[in-house]
Amino acid sequence: MTKKIIVLTLLTILVFTSISAAVDLDDFDKSLFIRVFKDVDSDDLDYMAKLGLNSRDISLVLYYYSNSGKELDEEELRNIALTRERLRDFHRYFGLPYIIFDDELIRFRHPRRDRHYPPFDVNKYDKKFEFEGGSEKIKVRGPNYEYKYNNKFTGVEEKIEIKKQKYEYYYKDDNMIEMLDVHYANNKYSYYYKNLNSSRTIKKEGRGRIAERDLIYEELKERYYELEDQTEDKKDHKKDNDDKTKDDADNDSNISFKIEINLSNLFN
């Protein structure tokens, strides 16, 4: 009995030690995350660092959450800190591919909406949610992931399918169509977007890169410098910017990394 208590005590110490192995974020990294990700502040970043997440970890975490639209809260951050070594493998729980484009990060253009997600680290999961005018379905079987959503009142249809050799995404509403296909055998991708109001169309094809922490961090640094340059350009060419038309509303520079982050209970 005494031996069991000692073992349990040691395990508990190891768990809390892994969570509390705090790291330091330098001023540049804080400025980077706050500038690129909307709604992230210094207190949020300090708490992530306190859990032992370094700047590369935080890059991947914020990228996942901002691109999926999932809310980031205290409980999920703690779970991530405990399993940070496998963070890259969590892409499917967000309905995302494990690659990024060959020349930039993937940034979906469809509007953010509340939706359901499977819990982290489950190998079997089935849920169906029905509501007036539509339904939502999630199915996880090992590495396979399937998501379907339709709402006849809003006109939104969304499908995600992840299998060992492929990733498929489809979104449609009254204003736009968005699709992404990835073949994992060679990481080749095909992206398509069309604004149904302006007829603006975007097509991209290439060989994607694995979404590693270091790579995501470097891409976010590039985005940071782009935003800084845009700020300077606006100061120098304010009149030109004021004359831009609404047709530019969905251009690449306006696709933001907005994130829903809720750590308010920690700072009250």
Structural description of this entry:
The longest helix has 24 residues, at 213-236. The chain has one domain (10-266). It has an 8-stranded antiparallel sheet with strand order 4-5-6-7-8-9-10-11, with no helix packed on it. The protein has a two-stranded parallel sheet with strand order 1-13. Strands 2-14 form a two-stranded parallel ribbon. The protein is α+β, with helices and mostly antiparallel strands and 268 residues long. Helix content is 34%, strand content 28%.
The percentage helix is: 25-40%
The helix-strand sequence is: HHEHHEHEEEEEEEEEEHHEE
How many β strands by DSSP?
Answer: 14
User: Which segments are poorly predicted (pLDDT under 50) over 5 or more consecutive residues?
Assistant: 2-20, 242-249
Distance between the termini: 42 Å
Question: Largest beta sheet, briefly?
Answer: 8 strands, antiparallel
Shape: globular
Beta-strand portion reads 25-35%
Q: Structural class of the helices, strands and pairings?
A: alpha+beta
Task: Tell me the domain tally.
Answer: 1
Q: What's the quaternary structure here?
A: single chain
- Mean pLDDT value: 84
Radius of gyration, in Å, reads: 20 Å
Number of helices: 7
- Largest beta sheet: what is the strand line-up? 4-5-6-7-8-9-10-11
